[in-house]
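Whiteboard transcription, Tuesday session. T.W. wrote the structure tokens on the left side:
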């Protein structure tokens, strides 16, 4: 616990530009480090969690306020991406390290650790949106350690899902699949909702291996685990539909023949369902849904509909500080020009994107080198 508190303090201070970890400090390979934490988690899983001691009213009220603040920051992340609010989250997490350093009853310490895990997870997502992949890995590592201190298997599942998606984005789907498999073994007290999330993330990672049947099985498992519970579960019908649509999009773009065409049809159906059912504050998810659907329309050789769909995301991308969203819209524009160089809609859309949407920062896979090739003719850039 004391090591974790020092790490939280150092990482957040460095992120805030004040002090902290030296310039040469590097996080161990994120997948390997996550696997090590899960191995320790599994070793302690046989021991029953600490008893839920009764809290006095003042402690309970203050903890509830901190948890509500963390939830508000999570909404910020979905709605605004990695802009100036990211610093506010890092500052709040730094304050949590100071608070955790005080003496607390075990029950209070566990809940405070849970708040720290939530904040670190949000900071990781916001850092990824800001194009700061190294900082994102640090925050996800802190979140996983804090979730373990809290004894919160559900939070652990959320963090592992985020970490696995980051590993997939780094081009290592096999390692992400192994990490998710280990999480299912280690996080034994997780809820069905968290199990559904892990299965959905596994389907996403499997899609990048091009294996149709395992993806279908993982999606079926996620849907069965999620069920149809009332309220707004963390991984409910909109998330199931969005994940299924993203998986089918990947398979459609990477495959050929009738099976790929069938995947494109399914992707369009699932993404349309997700778009119609997400809560309004999920702006980033909606933008990525729209761009995914636009990619599917390109695969279905419908350039006009593809550009029309992608254009619906432009206003939101302008307000959303997300390098992921910016990269995706630039990538779509290049792909549309490459596949349909004679389509006037594709050329007009590309000019609008180049003029109004800043390119992703260095290291975020920006496609600027592909623009000249795409504008000159149908030759596909290497990174696509």
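and on the right, the sequence the group agreed on:
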């Amino acid at each position: 616990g004391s090591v974790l508190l020092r790490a939280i303090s150092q990482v957040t201070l460095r992120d805030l530009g004040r002090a902290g970890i030296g310039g040469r400090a590097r996080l161990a390979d994120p997948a390997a480090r996550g696997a090590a934490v899960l191995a320790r988690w599994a070793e302690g899983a046989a021991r029953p969690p600490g008893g839920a001691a009764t809290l006095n009213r003042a402690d309970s009220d203050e903890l509830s306020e901190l948890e509500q603040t963390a939830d508000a920051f999570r909404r910020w992340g979905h709605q605004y991406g990695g802009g100036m609010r990211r610093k506010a989250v890092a500052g709040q997490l730094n304050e949590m390290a100071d608070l955790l350093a005080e003496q607390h009853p075990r029950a209070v310490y566990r809940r405070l650790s849970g708040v720290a895990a939530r904040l670190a997870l949000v900071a990781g997502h916001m850092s990824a949106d800001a194009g700061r992949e190294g900082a994102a890995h640090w925050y996800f590592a802190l979140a996983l350690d804090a979730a373990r201190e809290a004894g919160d298997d559900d939070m652990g599942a959320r963090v592992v899902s985020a970490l696995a998606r980051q590993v997939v984005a780094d081009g290592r789907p096999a390692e992400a699949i192994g990490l998710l498999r280990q999480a299912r073994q280690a996080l034994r007290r997780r809820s069905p909702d968290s199990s559904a999330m892990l299965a959905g993330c596994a389907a996403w990672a499997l899609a990048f291996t091009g294996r149709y049947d395992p993806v279908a099985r993982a999606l079926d498992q996620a849907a069965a685990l999620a069920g149809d519970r009332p309220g707004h579960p963390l991984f409910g019908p909109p998330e199931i539909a969005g994940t299924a649509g993203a998986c089918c999009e990947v398979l459609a773009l990477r495959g050929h023949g009738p099976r790929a065409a069938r995947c494109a049809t399914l992707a369009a159906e699932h993404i349309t369902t997700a778009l119609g059912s997400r809560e309004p504050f999920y702006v980033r998810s909606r933008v990525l849904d729209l761009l995914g659907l636009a990619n599917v329309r390109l695969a279905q050789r419908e350039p006009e509909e593809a550009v029309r769909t992608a254009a619906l995301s432009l206003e939101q991308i302008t307000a959303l500080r997300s390098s992921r969203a910016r990269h995706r819209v630039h990538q779509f524009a290049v792909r549309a020009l490459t596949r349909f160089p004679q389509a006037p809609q594709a050329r007009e859309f590309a000019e609008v994107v180049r003029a109004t949407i800043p390119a992703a920062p260095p290291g975020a896979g920006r496609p600027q080198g592909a623009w000249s090739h795409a504008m000159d003719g149908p030759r596909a850039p290497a990174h696509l």
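Someone added at the bottom: Confidence is low (pLDDT under 50) at residues 46-53, 362-369, 371-384.
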